[in-house]
Amino acid sequence: MALGTETRDETPNETTTTEDGLFLTQYHSDNRLNNTAHATRVDYKTAGNSFCRPGQTCGYQEGKRYSFCYVDYSNNWDYCCTGPCDYHGKSYMWCLSGYKWQYCGDAGYLNIDGIPCYHSHPCGMHQEASKESDYWCYVDHKLSWNRCCAPSSKCDYHGLSYKWCYTGYKKDTDWYECK
Fold first, then answer.
1. Structural domain tally of the chain?
2. Which domain covers residue 76, as residue numbers?
3. Which of 60, 151, 159, 173 could form a disulfide with 105 if both were Cys (CB 3.0 to 4.6 A apart)?
4. Where is this region: Disordered (predicted)?
C-alpha cells in the first residue's frame, strides 16, 4: 500500500502500521444476504489527516514539486507525506512532502469533549480549511468544530484533578480539558 492510504467501507475492523510508521486502517464489509463476500475501498490521507477526494491519490500533480491531493469535503487541497510522519528530533510531528516539510499526525476520531468527528473528517491539522495551530475536526454536517488531542497527547489526568491534553502541533503548548 502507498504512504498515507486507508482502506475503508463503514466500520473499521483493523488498524496496522506500515513499515515507514504511517498508519493504515482497513475497513471491511461482509453482506451475505446480497452474496457480497467482501468490499473495500482505498482512500488516501493528507499530512493534516484529511481524506483525499474519493478516487484520487496523493502524488506529484500539475507539475508541482510536492505531493498533494484535493480533499473530499471542499475544493481545497492539502500536502501529502512522502516519508514517515515523526518528530525527527523536533518538538512537533512532521514529514517530507517532496522537497518541502509539513506538519503531520493522526489524532483519532474523537474531539476533546468525547464527541465523534463527522464521518468524513477525522481529527487533524486540516490546514487546507483553517490556519489553526491545533488539531480539530468537524462534528456535524453544519461544520461545527472542536479541538482534538494531539497524536502525542492522551486525554488523562497528568497529575491534576481533571483530564486534559495538548491540542497544538508542538509538544507542551496549547492544552484543554478533555473527556
1. 2
2. 1-105
3. 151
4. 1-20
